[in-house]
């Protein structure tokens, strides 16, 4: 390393035009002629075309570059030059280079520019992440997470994370992962942090938890992972209307952040950004009753009392350019903790946000039961063991107040932002029914 030459990232190249710099990266692509070659280098921040001219370099350096193999690691030094025809607007004229590790010809980098099948790519996910589109999707994910945290941190919410090992089910018993915890005890991986957030909301007012959650989803769909990240705000002294208001404001805040900071990545993903720019307040609102009527009028087989499937969710929003809020579902299709609607107790004070363009439910939430006797009755009806919920029941004994909250899945939201067909590309190492590797 030469201390005289500053190490920069490719994203910073524009600020160093005319200067000699050092870039540490990997060989993305290589074009060559007899006396010149063009190694395209990526460093995690961008890609830059380098120009290596035989007559300007020690022979050994030129020979090493000319035959370099894809994804070999290297450090190049040279002058940055503005070049309007180059993808990033700049090129680097190579003055010297060190090869850090050369990928051997006998065992070449498996992902070549040709088309590969999805199973092959998923098996090589640890390498596939280096590709432009995968890199872009994960950069958008990063921005989504950052904006979510910024939103809650600047609106009076305290981050209080909740446990992963839990003794009780939150979202029904059919999707639980059971773990042997000790010789005496089995526990479950958390499906949601909500129940604990209800406790912390009574301590802090407004809280959120943000972590991995687990569902043993038996179905293989493009919207379901078995391990996904969820942000879950919970608010004391709040109701269903607060959930709609905060959810809408949060969604708009995150989209604004993505549009502001991810233009290059959205371009790499070929995302039609006008679809995201169109998402504005107010989001349309509809009762479950009316949603069923709308679906029936569009030819769905759904009957009152049934839950919406993927095709129903897509049908419901196919004439909309922004998420739809559907509220007051039949209590029977929802989790045990929902407060019943006062005028019609067979309905739950819950709301789902259904994203446009077929992305389905991105948010689920609502108002929680705050009455002790009603909670005890529901636990019994849902066949949930009272012992596992003793602490949760306490919350209804000691200063119980109306409270509400929701959960948003990071991967579903990111898939929508990126316009991706399948949720598996929105997380670095997806876990699905038939995939636990790499
Ligand atoms: O509707 P869900 O199941 O709600 C809850 O877990 C509540 N306890 C949240 C709360 O009120 N604090 O899940 C919430 C969101 C869904 O809208 C969806 O975005 C995401 O979590 N989600 C999944 N994402 C990926 N794969 C799965 N298997 C998912 N299940 C839910
Ligand atoms: Mg839901």
Q: What would you note in describing this structure?
A:
This protein has helices spanning 59-66, 118-123, 125-128, 132-153, 194-204, 240-261, 263-268, 273-277, 288-297, 310-317, 372-381, 390-394, 410-418; strands at 20-32, 36-42, 47-53, 73-82, 90-101, 158-159, 165-166, 178-180, 186-189, 206-214, 227-236, 285-287, 324-330, 347-355, 360-367, 403-409. It is of the alpha+beta class and 438 residues long. Strand 14 (347-355) and strand 15 form a beta hairpin. It is elongated. The protein starts with 19 loop residues before the first strand and ends in a 20-residue tail after the last helix. The model has no long low-confidence stretch (mean pLDDT 96). Magnesium ion is lined by residues 352, 361, 364.
Strand order of the largest sheet: 6-10-11-16-15-14-13-12
Quaternary:
single chain
Strand content: 25-35%
Name of the CATH superfamily of the largest domain? Bira Bifunctional Protein, Domain 2
CATH domain fold name of the largest domain: BirA Bifunctional Protein, domain 2
How many whole angstroms does the radius of gyration measure? 26 Å
Q: How far apart are the termini?
A: 34 Å
Instruction: Indicate the mean pLDDT.
Output: 96
User: Which regions contain 5 or more consecutive residues with pLDDT less than 50?
Assistant: none
- The count of domains is 2
The major beta sheet can be summarized as: 8 strands, mixed
- Kindly provide the name of the CATH class of the largest domain: Alpha Beta
């Amino acid at each position: 390393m030469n201390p005289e030459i500053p190490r920069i990232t490719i994203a910073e190249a524009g600020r160093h035009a005319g200067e000699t710099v050092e870039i540490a990266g990997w060989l993305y692509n290589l074009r060559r002629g007899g006396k010149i070659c063009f190694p395209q280098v990526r460093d995690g921040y961008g890609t830059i075309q380098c120009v290596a001219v035989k007559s300007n370099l020690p022979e050994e350096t030129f020979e090493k570059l000319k035959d370099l193999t894809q994804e070999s690691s290297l450090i190049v030094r040279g002058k940055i030059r503005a070049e309007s025809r180059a993808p990033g607007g700049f090129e680097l004229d190579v003055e010297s280079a060190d090869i850090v590790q050369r990928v051997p010809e006998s065992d070449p980098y498996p992902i070549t520019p040709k088309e590969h099948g999805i199973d092959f790519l998923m098996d090589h996910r640890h390498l596939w992440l280096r590709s432009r589109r995968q890199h872009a999707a994960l950069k958008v994910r990063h921005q989504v997470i950052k904006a979510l945290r910024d939103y809650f941190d600047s609106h009076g919410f305290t981050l209080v994370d909740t446990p992963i090992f839990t003794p009780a089910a939150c979202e029904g018993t059919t999707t639980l992962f059971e773990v042997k915890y000790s010789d005496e005890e089995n526990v479950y991986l958390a499906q949601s942090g909500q129940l604990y957030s209800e406790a912390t909301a009574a301590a802090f007012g407004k809280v959120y938890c943000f972590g991995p959650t687990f569902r043993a989803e038996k179905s293989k769909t493009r919207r379901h992972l078995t391990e996904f990240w969820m942000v879950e705000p919970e608010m004391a002294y709040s109701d269903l209307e607060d959930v709609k208001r905060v959810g809408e404001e949060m969604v708009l805040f995150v989209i604004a952040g993505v549009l502001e900071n991810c233009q290059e990545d959205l371009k790499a993903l070929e995302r039609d950004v006008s679809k995201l720019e169109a998402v504005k307040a107010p989001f349309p609102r509809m009762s479950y009753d009316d949603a069923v009527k709308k679906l029936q009028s569009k030819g769905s087989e759904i009957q009152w009392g049934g839950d919406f499937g993927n095709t129903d969710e897509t049908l419901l929003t196919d004439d909309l350019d922004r998420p739809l809020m559907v509220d007051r579902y039949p209590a029977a299709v929802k989790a045990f903790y929902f407060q019943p609607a006062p005028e019609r107790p067979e309905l739950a004070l819950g709301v789902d946000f259904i994203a446009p363009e077929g992305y389905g439910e991105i948010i689920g939430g609502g108002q929680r039961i705050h009455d002790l006797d009603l909670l005890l009755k529901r636990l019994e009806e849902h066949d949930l063991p009272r012992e596992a919920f003793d602490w949760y029941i306490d919350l209804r004994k000691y200063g119980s107040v109306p409270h509400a909250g929701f959960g948003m899945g990071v991967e579903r939201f990111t898939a929508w932002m990126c316009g991706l067909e399948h949720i598996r590309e929105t997380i670095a190492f997806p876990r699905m029914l038939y995939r636990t590797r790499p």
